[in-house]
Amino acid sequence: MKESLLFNAVVNNLEDAHELIDTAISTSLKESKPVYVSISCNLAGIPHPTFSRELVPFSLSPRLSNQMGLEAALEAAAEFLDKAVKPVLVGGPKLRVANATDAFVELADACGYPLAVMPSAKGLVPEHHQHFIGTYWGAVSTPFCAEIVESADAYLFAGPIFNDFTTVGYSLLLKKEKAIIVQPNRVVIGNGPAFGCILMKDFLRALGKRLKCNTTAYENYHRIFVPEGPPLKSAPKEPLRVNVLFQHIQNLLSSATAVIAETGDSWFNCQKLKLPQGCGYEFQMQYGSIGWSVGATLGYALAVPEKYGQRAIIFLINNGGYTSEAAIHGGPYNVIKNWNYTGLVDALHNGEGKCWTTKASCLTWCIRSSASIDSIPMLTNTDNTILLYIHCFQVGCEEELIEAIGTATGDKNDNLCFIEVVVHKDDTSKELLEFGSRVSAANTGPPNPQ
Known about the structure:
Residues 74-192 form the Thiamine pyrophosphate enzyme central domain. The chain has 450 residues and is α/β, with parallel strands linked by helices.
């Protein structure tokens, strides 16, 4: 389900340009969402008095909760949760928009409930929190997480988005009457009542001071939890497996790194990564856009140049086709021409670029990605320009992967590194197989009548 356009300013004349542009900017700042401004090409270079005079200071009035509504919502929510035997907390992606992540953690600290996140909220809550139990994603949740959430007699969802992807084909075993849904400006308790004009961060922070501490559900989780073991050890020169790749990616993570997870099977494999304190994480599933991560990696790097270094690593998992799509709906269209991805360097270079190539690795100034490949960029940053030097490697076994990662992370390497990982076409996570069958069942059938 795609959200409607927040604001679109179409500037066709100078008379209302100032008002339209200011409205767009203020709307974006207030809602923490993108807006669009389009300006007719014949206007861009025309001077106008409203833009040439001394600048008028721009300010936004602070948004405040309705205090009477806030008090009523707190009273109802505290009564609802305090009478529950094993309540839980689940964080959603709108925690970021509402600027409420700190308030949510404060609530978790105070109430003692187990703390889970929806898949697109991974990284918004510290995974080292003493009551963190993982990702709640229905049938493809972190092990033992769904069992605790869905068996609870009350759950508070802060900033959730429920669509066919986040609900695994609308198969979540949740009941509305057990839920408190907290959105950026609204609180709904069970089947009612609903309270509007309440800021999420105000509600969560105040609720933590009202609730009784209840660790029952977390104690239940602790009783049933069994740690995961490492993947089977690879034989010498054995074809590389995805679970082995991710063991090495896990070892790369630190407080100075961030993960950008691509659409597809990387959704599930990246959810299993244990994020160190301070490690960033970006994950987009509202649109399910294949290829999103490549542009997002550049955007993320340019947004925080002072935090990270001058290098990024992109792992492109080449399984020879649309394996993630095939898990949902099989067909010959999921088998595509398998390009020589690292060979694109020679075509771009053509004897004139600032790069060199060998059979094992190559260097060039730009990168292109195919939508047919599940890729996982692991970001530590790129340069502040679009012209990037890139080391390229193609690996097919663990020994080659270790060598490529060693080069990518070497002290003398300040370049973007592109590692193509060749794996078997059927090498997928068990979560993708479960997800694919459930989403396929939910989306198969005649169209809904209009």
